[in-house]
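Quick start: what a row looks like.
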Amino acid sequence: MIHIAIDGPAGSGKSTIAKKVANKLNIKYLDSGALYRIIGYFFKEKKNTLDENTIKETLDKLSISLKDDFYIVNGEKIDKQIRTANSGNYASTVAKIPEVREKVNLILRNISEKMSTVIDGRDIGTVVLPNAEYKFFLTASAEERAKRRFNELIEKGEDVNYNLILKEIKERDFNDTTRNIAPLKCAKDAIEIDTTSKNIDDVLKEILNYIDGDFDESKGC
């Protein structure tokens, strides 16, 4: 088995790249961000609250499993419901709660114990799978990440504002990098890749080359 950790801030392209790496290597892709979005979505949309104490008290009643590459939450298949602009903000809020992070990490580790996985997130290489054989940290300017997110939401038919998205991304960056528990950072043994001026194929090729043994050690964090 092999395990690949791909970390980075919101909009750096890690989810897109992780899916393609998994497809190329024929291994399971796990979206850790989706789990935080799911928990945020569940409590905000189903329970109408993001109160920390309420979440802690009822978190055990939330059943999350993986079936046919989709997460099933208390019997409900979750996909498009958590791909809205608001769901990202919900995720950032619940990710600050230690019990939520523990639940997400346990789900990811349990799955990875049984099969080869590619996981993307913000603390995969540092906390979730610190012994992963391959670790990557993708970055991009806040402006480029906001543009990508804006275009993605426009394609989905959502009415969004670029400046608001840029503001939210900068706020999420601050929250993710300054939180006390598992802050966003590049693992010491990870390879950092700036995706600002690179397309998906460029980044994919760079990662696959590294896994094949062709890499530049100077790119480490």
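That is the whole record. The mean pLDDT is 90. Residues 3-207 form a domain with the Rossmann fold fold (CATH 3.40.50.300).
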